[in-house]
Design a protein that fits this description.
By secondary structure, the protein is α+β, with helices and mostly antiparallel strands. It is built from 8 helices and 16 strands. The chain has 3 domains: 2-95, Rossmann fold (3-Layer(aba) Sandwich), CATH 3.40.50; 115-179, 2-Layer Sandwich (Dna Ligase, domain 1), CATH 3.30.1490; 182-261, ATP-grasp fold, B domain (D-amino Acid Aminotransferase, Chain A, domain 1), CATH 3.30.470.20. It is 29% helix and 27% strand. The strands form 4 sheets. It has a 5-stranded antiparallel sheet. It has a 4-stranded parallel sheet with strand order 2-1-6-7, covered by helices on one side. It is globular.
Length: 293
């Protein structure tokens, strides 16, 4: 199998925690040829999109694993990858990546989510805060790793300043979600592969943190899937599979779906260590089956 991985520069990645690197290692261990490049190396001439001097059609699969933010450069990269989607397997599908904002995609599953509002209006955010009893979580629509996430409280004298900052004084859309007290017990990351659960890890925030992101210092702990988790996986997994989102990460707090991570979901190394498994092997198994090698 000849595989191309579009990813961030290796020097920017942590080998101890990065999911992309462990998948690459497993593919190479099996003797597959794996090239890598950044999204900036993609270019187009005539009908052929290329990475460096090689056409993407020469690869049997292309993994798009660049980290957010989903900005114009990322958007244009998916448009270039679109030119290859009929000639090679692209994971995740570029059309799916463009359609599935990691925050907004949850609105496809209204019965699985907590009360959530997306707005740039300061008045609307304050009204939601009051509706939710004086607490809410506010987050940007285009960041990752917990960046820009705030636990907002009505009694905090900084509340107005926080809302002004996150919305750019009412110019930027943000997401406000009900504060779920279960977040103190952990934010569950569930990895799905081709619509089916692959593994899960519970990310427990530090005592001095609200965010349950590993990038923000959360502690990875062992967990199990509950009947509610499996219900979420079944409904979300079917839609993701239909949208060509083959490898995704669901974030679940207190039985509520809070995000669907589609660009470069992580957690494989943490689950491997906690469970004594090798999820990367199952990912490469799936690629081999899809390609027929």
């Amino acid at each position: 199998m000849r595989l191309l991985v579009v990813m961030d520069p290796p020097e920017c990645l942590n080998p101890a925690t990065d999911t992309t690197l462990v998948i690459v290692e497993e593919a190479r261990r099996r003797g597959h040829e794996v090239d890598s490049c950044t999204a900036s190396a993609l270019w187009l001439e005539g009908p052929e999109v290329r990475a460096g001097e090689r056409a993407l059609a020469e690869y049997q699969a292309v993994l798009m694993r660049s980290d957010p933010p989903f900005d114009l450069d990322y958007y244009f990269a998916t448009l270039l990858l679109e030119r290859a989607r009929e000639r090679t397997l692209v994971v995740n599908d570029p059309r799916g990546l463009r359609e599935a904002n990691e925050k907004l995609y949850i609105f496809n599953f209204p019965r699985l989510i907590a009360p959530t509002r997306v707005t740039r209006s300061l008045d609307a955010l304050k009204a939601f805060l009051a509706q939710e009893g004086g607490q809410m979580i506010v987050k940007p629509l285009d960041a990752c790793g917990g960046a820009g996430v705030f636990h907002v409280r009505a009694e905090d004298r900084n509340t107005n300043a926080i809302l002004e900052a996150v919305t750019g004084c009412g110019k930027k859309l943000v997401m406000a979600q009900r504060y779920l007290a279960e977040a103190r017990e952990g934010d569950k990351r569930i990895l799905l592969l081709d619509g089916e659960p692959l593994g899960a890890v519970l990310r427990v925030p530090r005592a001095d943190e609200t965010r349950g992101n590993l990038h923000a210092g959360a502690r990875a702990t062992q967990t199990a899937l509950t009947p509610r988790d499996l219900e979420i996986c079944a409904e979300v997994g079917a839609r993701c599979k239909a949208d060509g989102l083959y490898f995704v990460g669901l974030d679940v707090i207190g039985g509520h779906l809070t995000e669907v991570n589609v660009t470069s979901p992580t957690g494989v190394r943490e689950i491997d260590r906690l469970e004594g498994v090798r999820l990367e092997a199952r990912v490469v198994d799936w690629l081999e089956r899809r390609i027929g090698v």
